[in-house]
Design a protein that fits this description.
The protein is 0% helix and 57% strand. With 140 residues, it is an all-beta fold. It has one domain: ApaG domain (Immunoglobulin-like), CATH 2.60.40.1470. Strands 4, 5, 6, 8 and 9 form a 5-stranded antiparallel sheet that branches. The relative contact order is 0.27. The N terminus is likely disordered. This is Protein ApaG. It comes from Ponticaulis profundi.
Length: 140
Amino acid sequence: MSEAFIGDIFPYENETYGVTIRVLPEYLEERSEPDVRQYFWRYTIEIENGADQTLQLCSRHWVITDARGRRQEVRGDGVVGEQPFIAPGERYTYASGCPLNEPSGMMTGSYLMRRDDGEEFNVLVPAFSLDSPHDRTVLN
């Protein structure tokens, strides 16, 4: 991932046990078809290890909720086919995607991390919005 994504452009951030998760969601017009209620987002995640041991990202758990309140959970090993090791002070960045049948929604979740000493713990991913220009919700 390009260095251009590192830093202050991530609008969502959370820190758990010295591990900071940053998220940048982006609506992809070119992959979406609003006429048939298909909307697609790319999200870029940066994981920064501020802990004192190397960590391995073992698994992920996502909770995805669309604008109508329909919820789905996704669990799996690693991310994008990897179970990366992240040394103290290092960052790991990846991008993935999320389709919805509604023009907006939100995601939140966690990663199961394992330390060098074998201890496992969950790192929370901040809740982040999936917003498209096709969402006509008016708040009054």
